[in-house]
From TrEMBL:
Protein name: Lipoprotein
PROSITE patterns xrefs: PROKAR_LIPOPROTEIN
Amino acid sequence: MHIKSGLSFLIILLVGACQEAKVEDQYSYYQAIENRDTTFLRLQISEGRFFGDYVFAKGNSYQVRGDFKGETAGDTLSGMLVYTPYGHKNSKKVAFALLKSGDKLYEGKGIQTIYMGVPYFPPTSLSFDSHRIFTPSENQRVFSKE
């Protein structure tokens, strides 16, 4: 009798483990507009880490796409952006930092340093008095795979 109940429990456990979990869109969307240029971010923050996608649209002429990832510390998101510059074949890694204040994100700038191939801003050089301020955006189609 114990074998049947144990086997039934094991089958239920295996079936439950094999169920496909439904993943919802947990991204937040932002944009920063400067003259005719627009930068879009699709951002997800989870458990002390962040990641997402980056699109820089130079007027109506071209787009530069990339992705970013990093760690969060309070209201500061610090990591790296990987993108391929317009007209180039090879990707480029740069330090990337954001300051979350209310519903806005302020892009950080500073003296980029590279340690073991990973670009970053030393905390003493990082400032958020940037011209690029991201506000919430409803524009999600810029990230579609079309």
